[in-house]
What we know:
The protein is an alpha+beta fold and about 150 residues long. It has four helices and nine strands, in the order E-H-H-H-E-E-E-E-E-E-H-E-E.
Amino acid sequence: MTYKITGLTPAAHAPLFAMSDAELAAINARRVTAASNGFPCRVTLEDAKEGERLILFHHVSHDVATPYRSAYAVYIREAAQQAAVYVDQTPPVFEGRPIALRGFDAAGNLRNAALALPGQADMRIRELFEADEIAYIHAHNAAHGCFSAAIERT
């Protein structure tokens, strides 16, 4: 069994960077500058470096017609040019933080979940995918609850 973790498509969110601060505020988004840590980019799946510019916006990560539809605030870096892809390995944003993994069936219903402490994400992803009913997994930062990345079988 193999899996793939993919970042958000940057082109879909590029117009946010052309907006004024007032326009961003009108859609409940804002421009921020990364401090030393804690600014995980959902395109590159890396933490932004200190001083990098990002947009914080409301992102619907699980757009399904079930009670498990989900949305939360996420960051994207202005410099992000291409969605990261990781096959059979976890991205840097999973390192050093607990990750909540939510396993969904093909209809978008939650079937199982796991908590991965630092260094455990790969193992927990594989464990969830052992069940045939798990079609895909969403990873979230366990402490803050924000969407981190989508994980699919390959």
